[in-house]
Amino acid sequence: MRTPVFELHIRPMFRATDREHMRWALDLWDYDDVVAQADDILDRLEQDMPPVSGGGLWPEEWIAVFRRWKDGARKRLELGTASYVLTRTATRVDLTATGTFPAAGYEGWLQLESETDTSKTYVLHLEAPDTPEAGTPPAFSVVESYRATDTRRVFVHDSTGVQEIV
Question: Are 87 and 14 in a shared domain?
Answer without folding.
Answer: no
